[in-house]
Amino acid sequence: MRAYPYGYQCRPRHTCRAVITPPPGVRTVRSPAGGRAHARQAASNSPCRASPSQSGTCTAPGAITVRSRGKSSPSISPLSGRADKTPGMETNEHVKALTREGELLADVAEQAGTDAVVPACPGWRVTDLLRHTGSVHRWAAAYVAERRLEPTGFPDAPELTDGELLAWFREGHAELVRTLTEAPADVQCWTFLPTAPPSPLAFWARRQAHETAVHRMDAEAALGVVFSPVEPEFAEDGVDELLTGFHARPRSRVRTPEPRVMRVRAADTGAVWTVHLSAAPARTVQGDTGEAADCELTGEAAWLYAALWNRVPLVGPGVTGDLALARLWTETAGI
Predict the structure, then answer these.
(1) Residue 175 and residue 163 in contact, taking contact as beta carbons nearer than 8 Å
(2) Which pTM was predicted?
(3) Alpha-carbon Rg of the chain, whole angstroms?
(4) Residue 142: its H or E element
(5) Which of 23, 25, 32, 206 has the highest Cβ tally under 10 A?
(6) Do the beta carbons of residue 44 and residue 4 sit within 8 Å?
């Protein structure tokens, strides 16, 4: 058992490889005989840190640049330093997404085989991916089920393989879904992001939905197929959690010697984030603050979701301005 008092990180720093896939939203077609539609893969060396929200890197084929049609006025809470309004997903929607993503992850992992290599993380195979994500699910469920108010050690996964490992993963995923579904809305337990949703239950449902979705992408990369489509609202929510939550923490390594501004625009949902970078942890404001941006990232929410979580390269026509800031993100934003 290992303790992680400020969140969780279960993997050492290492060099990740990018998996280049078609843009999110393109469905994978499998033949009745079980054939696979393979995506092209390419390796690129970029340092990253892996954790229950594993980092890799990647590209934005088809990313588009959209000029702003206007500027929204961000609303900042004087107490929290964040926008008062977060993307409008309810807890039950996150639980439904968690259910869908976990089932898909297991199915894809079974198709790939537990010995298949996970391209984003050298040294990892699907066995490691299942053991890791299954442990995270049990770790998260315990906080809610047992009303834990303090951080606890991260559980080790059993040494299982093949069908037994898949059954163990599915069991833990189902138990997490049951726990979140049956827990009272006012349950009190530990959480770890500075801009967490209004209730611990909402926090854990949201966090585990995105945890599982990102690792589902890893399973699909191991199988060699394009990523399954992600709903724009869910992708927007995941970007918001990453920018306003993970990278508001002291442990975020996305820093610049001098103040810089990066603006992120979701072309399909209209969401905008203004990320203030400096020698301190990033400060993200929802909306266009009107100040000049040194770098802009524009594309569909699903692409931003995959790219900012380092599952596709942060390159392409949707990346404009100072490209060094985009490279800085790729090199330092691993969670």
Answers:
(1) no
(2) 0.77
(3) 19
(4) helix 126-145
(5) 206
(6) no
